[in-house]
Amino acid sequence: MPQIDADRFLRDLNELRRIGAYKTGVHRPTYSPEDMESRHWLMERMAEIGLEPSIDGIGNVYGRHRGPGPHLLAGSHIESQNQAGWLDGALGVMAALALARAGLPVDVAAFADEEGHFEGGFLGSKSIIGALPEEEIDRSRSRNDGTPLREALAAAGLAGKPRMQLEPGRHKGFFEMHIEQGTQLEKAGLRAGVVTGIVAIWQWRITIAGMQDHAGGTTMAERRDAGLTAVRLLSMIDQEMPKACGTRSTWTTGRIAVEPGAPSIIPGRADILFQFRDIDVPTLDRMEACLRACVQESNRRERCEATLTNISKSLPAPCDTAMMAALDTSAERHAPGLWQRMPSGAGHDAQYIARVMPVSMLFTPSIGGISHHWAEDTKEEDLALCCQILADAAETYLKG
C-alpha cells in the first residue's frame, strides 16, 4: 500500500496556512493577491514532485501526472471564505498532493472560486467540465464589492489565458478529502466519514411589496408593512417546513433586506434570500411545495403581496459505489469501528466533477463543528489518518 509522508503533508498544510493568515485561520478571497500567491506556491510544490503544473484562464491550478495511467483526479480549492478557516478546501488539495508524492498516478487540481465570492460560484469546477459559458463570466460580479469577474481575472494576470477542460477518458474517478463542517463525527467519537452523496441546494428570492410611509403619521390599521409581513412569513415557513423535510434537510434565510431601511419609515419592500438542502429529490419537491403553500397563505392573510422566484436548483450528486467500497475497506483497516457513511450537507467541487466521472469524498472530523470561521480546526492525527485512508482507497480503486 502507498505510504503517506504525514510530516510533509502537515507541513504543506501549515505553509499554505501562512499565506493570507488571519488569527488562526486565513483570508484568501478568490483572485485576491493572497489567493494568487497561494496558487503559484502550489504550482511550485507540484513541480517539486514531478507533476506538470499549469494555471488556466479561470484560475484553476492543475498538476498533471507524467506517467502512464490509469489516472485519478484529486483535489478541491484553496481560496477561502472571508476571515475563515485554514482547512476548508486546502485540505483536499494538500491530500491530493500527498497522494501524488506517495507515487500514485494522480492529477492534482485546485479549482477556482468554490466558495462563491463571484456570482454563480464553483467557477473552476464548472469551467473544467465545459459548463461555464463565456456569457456567465461576462455577467458575474463579486459578491464582496461588485467587481466584474472579467476585471478581477485581468487584475490577477489571468486575462487571455485559455481555460482548460478535462481530457475525456483520462481519469477513472475523482477523490476529494474535506473537513466535515459539522458535528456528527466528533459527537460520535469517530475519525472518518465516507460520503454517500452531496446535497442539492435550491435557492429562492422572496420579494414583498408594501407601502413606504411615515412611521408616526400612519396608523397601525392603515399600514402595509413589508418588514412585518416578511417576519411573519419566515416564521410560518419555519413552523411548516418540518412537516415536509427529511432527517438531514436544512433551510436557511441568508439575507433579509428592507427598504428604505430607516428607523422612521415603514418598509415599503422586503427582499429575502432563502435556500433549502437535501440529497433526495422527492424531499426537495415536498419542501418546495411547502414553501409555495406558505407564500400562498401569506398572500391570503397579509396586506403585502409576496412573490417567490427560483434562483437556482442544483442536483444531488451520489458518490460512486465502488469508490465508497474502497474507502470503507481502507477506513476499517486504519480506524476499525471508528468511521461511518454519511451524506454531505455542503456543496463541493465534486458535485460538478460527478457530471463527467465517478466521484467520492472522505470527511475528517471538525473540532466543535466549526467552519467558515477562523477557529476552524481538526486534530493533526485525524488529518494524517484520513490522508492514509484516502491513499489506500485510491490504490484499491485503481486496481479494481
From TrEMBL:
Q: Which InterPro entries match?
A: Amidase_Cbmase, Bact_exopeptidase_dim_dom, Peptidase_M20
Q: Under which name does UniProt file this protein? A: Zn-dependent hydrolase
The protein's GO terms of the molecular function aspect are:
hydrolase activity
Q: Name the domain of life.
A: Bacteria
Q: How does it assemble?
A: Homodimer.
Keyword list (alphabetical) reads: Hydrolase, Manganese, Metal-binding
Known cofactor(s): Mn(2+)
Question: Where does this protein come from, organism-wise?
Answer: Belnapia arida
Record family assignment:
Belongs to the peptidase M20 family.
Question: Source taxonomy lineage?
Answer: Bacteria, Pseudomonadati, Pseudomonadota, Alphaproteobacteria, Acetobacterales
